[in-house]
Amino acid sequence: MSLRLFECTAHQIKAKILSKEIRASDFIKIVFDRIKSLEPNIQAFITINEDEAIKKAIEIDKKIESNENVGLLAGLPVAVKDNICTKNLYTTCASKILETFIPPYDAFVVKRLREEDAIIVGKTNLDEFAMGSSTENSGLKITRNPWNLECVPGGSSGGSAAAVAADLSILALGSETGGSVRQPAALCGVVGIKPTYGRVSRYGLVAFGSSLDQVGTVSKDVRDAALLLRVIAGYDLHDSTSANVPVPDYLDRIDSGVDGLRIGIPKEYFTDAFNADVYKALKDALKIYERLGAQVVDISLPHTEYAVAVYYIVANAEASSNLARYDGVRYGYRTSKPNGIIDMYCRTRSEGFGNEVKRRIMLGNYVLSSGYYDAYYLKASKVRNLIKIDFDVAFEKVDCIICPTSPVPAFKIGERANNPLEMYLSDIYTIPANLAGIPGISIPCGFSKEGLPIGMQILGKHFEEKKLLQIAYAFERETDFHVKKPVLKISSM
Amino acid sequence: MTYEVVIGLETHAELATITKLFCGCSTKFGVEPNTQVCPVCLAMPGVLPVMNKKAFEYALKAAIALNCKIDEFTNFDRKSYYYPDLPKNYQISQNYHNMGIDGYMDISVNGTISRIRIHNVHLEEEAGKLIHPEEVGADYSLVDFNRAGVPLLEIVSYPDMRRVDEVESYMQTLRKILLYTEVSDCKMQEGSLRFEASISLRKKGVDRLGNRVEIKNLNSMKSVLKAIEYETMRQRDVLDRGETVDRETRLWDEVNEKSARMRSKEESQDYRYFPEPDLLPVLIDEKWLRAIKDTIPELPLIRRQRFIETFALSDYDASLLIDEKILADFFEECVKILNRPKSFCNWITNDLLREVKDRKLDIYHLKIKPKQLAALVEIIEKGTISSTIAKEVFSEMIQTGKDPKTVVEEKKLVQISDEGLIEEIIIKIISSNPDAIEDYKKGKKNALTFLVGQVMKETKGKANPKIVNEMLMKKVGV
Ligand SMILES: [Zn+2]
Fold first, then answer.
1. Does residue B295 sit within a domain?
2. Please, how many CA atoms are within 13 Å of residue A491, restricted to the half-sphere of its CB?
3. How far apart, in whole angstroms, are the C-alpha atoms of residue A40 and residue A35?
4. Facing residue for A240 by CB, picked from B39, B87, B279
5. A181 touches A486 (CB < 8 A)
6. Distance CA B143, CA B129 (A)
């Protein structure tokens, strides 16, 4: 069966555009037609950027026609998570408090997309301020999983993952604080990378947990992920925590294989806590790696059990402070007719933030308050360091660690909404990498009995994204999970 | 009952960098509201701070000059509180690791030196400014963020001061150190130097400190001293009545010279400090520390001592000179050109300061240069102009920046020492003042002074007074 154009990967489309087989402006129209026909069901986008996208596509066509140099992403549609600032384009964080906010500047990663001639198709839905694992906490809309519209797409980058899975965009940017790219990628059957902390500039990514946040990629396959990561990675003077480490060409020697590599399996992760289908998919995947010449080794990450607790202290503490600026004074939502400044603060924030955000602000303020700081924040920071050391020790023995991305496939919308603790636990496999600052990639590795995608993640040492991509590509080449498409009914907008 | 007054000061000084602490915005004072702002200092979503290295080095320099211990590791912390002039609703400051701790500063009160310990010196960011509309019943306030993010140094003293004269000397000495190290312009009228006092009273001989009251809104050094005096009286009254002083923060009302409670200790804020994750810790190595140390000039108290010893100046004169670094520098420049310290000291501490005061000149941007003052002193010594004329020349120089020779030529102020010319004038004066001659002959000595005055008037002050005197005495036959 030949692919419909919108089903193509970035590499396939790029080749067609560069060889003038199709014009960028014609392709972008196909993408917007697709968006119009499916968006009413999926609800992946908060803002659709059609006019600007078409203008940009025409510019790129002109460049190509006159044989000018074009960027690495020439003509490729990219959806951007709506907590990443785009100049003159709404950036809402899926929050009522920023519903009308239009940034006066581009995030570093957005600037990079523009420099490489990408086309920003729109801004995607998320859990409000990226706080959640299902995109149900969006203050603006509910995004549905393209594989089953009754199910969540995961989160918080649920809009980006759903958009790529439903072929509403070829590429997308997401962001992670505790698995928010890898988990929705797994639940939507696409590829998601969480780079090393510091690999990608956070400038313009609306802060949630500053010491954990990182922009990541969502794509249809591993090679596309390598292409997009190369564009957004790199040192940025505007982010003191971005690393001045050279960015390699991640596509170069991506087919190096895994012969002789040692893959670590953390015994703490393989408990009966997770779904049988997920367990089987993982076991099968490891068999493939062994067949390809890799050695599977048991390892231990002894402080794993503390990861979720540590994460919710550190992330919420930072969030409570990062979200203090939404006060109605300078931009965004302001309550009407406030009675003095305290009333303005209270009502603006009470009316502007959703429940999950409020819950986390309160938790964060609590753990930082005088008398509790040592017992919570300081202790959590120390345990966080132990978790980092766990990984350092493990990587002395193995080249990478493989484990499920999520303990379960996509769950039903509303199923967990009233149980925040259960929801928090769904990030159990992704959170440790954020705490340790190491990179991770989630790739499709199977389907559940219900036909829902299952993802596995590969974790590596700091700045070893290239190795992770090689390991991921070795598996992808041997399997066809990534090319399977959800069956989607077209409805009119 | 006699009490001992225990006083500590917190000082805020804006650092003299040309850009803000975490963004590239200008720190220029007094421009249109909200014209020196950007996404970073307005705390737009997604922005990040980047440390201004110069500001960091200025803070480090001040900490060294205040004899602080400098830890190799420094970090920044977020201090959380909500106020509309604070864009992020947290201030990037230092709490767990200060720039410097446990320093000291020597102060001199009536020639006695005492040592005031410094608890810590740390770097933080300035807030914006609230503007309350003057119209009655206005239901809004405006915010100007031009100052938001300007680097601010906080210097916290131990409660080592006991009297207002110590407090005054502390403030003056600290100001001088900040000016000498050139880390702040210390313009109190522009708010770039501000003080907060904490005061407690205890019975003489008691070790334990009494309940401390903090006083804010002190807009000048005079307010600080007045507020301390007021607070001392207030607390004494409370204690004398057998009551206890509440731990609280009070606001000074400059107009009524009173303070009023702002908040009690119970209402005090929980700042929820935690390490700023957007900035990396800074490691200060030996080499860097030494390089900064090398930029610290001779500090005021030491300089004063040197002036006394090297230039044989009085304690009073030396103190006046070192009071403003720029004047002490001016003085030293002059002495380098012409070795007349006493003369330059007089010119600077008398004439120059008077002109500055009368004409409201900015001593940081004086038009007159040291080599011009040296040239003036030189032509006085040569007799080209009299010292009376010199004052007129100096006044012109300080206003226009012209060389003394130019002024003398333009105004034709060259001293008349030509005896023939002076004789002519004397003859004329004598003939037109016969009464004065009579008086003089009758023994009224001041008649001669009158005649000298007439000659000087006739020559518009240009006649050499020594020659006039001698010749007049000869003429009237003494
Ligand atoms: Zn700025």
1. no
2. 8
3. 9
4. B279
5. no
6. 6
d(CA A42, CA B374): 85
Retrieve residue B370's tokens: 């040291």
HSE-up of A412 (CA within 13 Å, CB side)? 4
- Domain identity same for B100 and B228: yes
Nearest-angstrom CA–CA distance, B465 and B451: 11
Angle CA(B203)–CA(B209)–CA(B215) in degrees, nearest 5? 105
Secondary structure E strands in B95-228: 100-109, 112-125, 129-131, 142-144, 151-157, 193-203, 213-218
Report CA B345 to chain centroid distance, whole Å: 19
SS3 track for B435-461: HHHHHHHCCCCHHHHHHHHHHHHHCCC
Q: Which among B386, B410, B434 is the end of a domain?
A: B410
Q: Where are the domains of chain A?
A: 5-264+401-483, 305-384
| Other CB atoms within 10 A of residue B376 CB | 28
CA distance B346 to B316: 12
What pTM did the predictor assign? 0.90
User: What letter represents residue A262's amino acid?
Assistant: R
- Positive or negative, the CA dihedral B13, B19, B24, B26 is positive
Q: Round to the nearest angstrom and report the end-to-end CA distance of chain A.
A: 28
Residues B152 and B62 in one domain: yes
Q: What is the pLDDT of residues B358-373, one digit of tens each?
A: 999 988 889 999 999 9
Q: For the segment B65-119, what is each residue's pLDDT rounded down to a tens digit?
A: 999 999 999 999 999 999 999 999 999 999 999 999 999 999 989 878 899 999 9
Q: Which residues pair with B118 in a beta bridge?
A: B103, B157
Range of the domain at B457: 419-475
- Does domain A5-264+401-483 fall into CATH 3.90.1300.10? yes
Q: What's at B244, amino acid-wise?
A: T
Residue A180 among the catalytic residues: yes
The gap from C-alpha B215 to its chain's centroid, in whole angstroms, comes to 22
Residues B239 and B317 reside in one and the same domain: no
- Is A204–B47 a contact, with Cβ atoms under 8 angstroms apart? yes
Q: What is the dihedral of CA B280, B281, B282, B285, to 10 degrees?
A: -130
Quick one: CA torsion of B461, B463, B466, B470, rounded to 10 degrees?
Answer: -120
Average pLDDT per block of 10 residues along chain B, 478 residues long = 94 98 97 98 98 98 98 96 97 97 94 94 97 88 97 98 97 95 93 96 91 94 97 96 94 94 83 97 96 95 92 92 91 95 95 93 91 94 84 93 90 80 86 84 82 85 84 77
Judged by a CB distance cut-off of 8 A, whether residue A327 touches chain B is yes
| Option in A98, A105, A211 nearest B39 (CB) | A105
Residues B459 and B327 in one domain: no
The number of folded domains in chain B is 3
Separation of CA A88 and ligand 1 centre (Å): 19
Looking at the fold, whether B209 and B71 belong to one and the same domain comes out as yes
Q: Do residues B272 and B329 both lie within one domain?
A: no
Domain identity same for B307 and B401: yes
B254 & B374 share domain: no
Active site (annotated) includes residue A256: no
Instruction: Please tell me whether residue B121 adopts helix, strand or coil conformation.
Output: strand
Question: In 3-state terms, what secondary structure has residue B55?
Answer: helix
Whether residues B46 and A370 touch (CB distance < 8 A) is answered with: no
Smallest Cβ distance to A203: which of B48, B51, B80?
B48
Domain end position, chosen among B239, B262, B290: B290
Q: How many angstroms is it from B42 CA to the middle of ligand 1?
A: 7
Distance of alpha carbon A480 from alpha carbon A44, whole angstroms: 25
Cis ω for the linkage preceding A448 (within 30 of 0): no
Contact between A157 and A181 (Cβ < 8 Å): yes
Amino acid residing at A316: N
Q: If you write DSSP's letter for every residue of A243-269 in order, what string do you get? A: ---PPP-TTTTTT---TT-EEEEETTT
| ipTM (interface predicted TM) | 0.96
Does residue B454 fall inside a structural domain?
A: yes
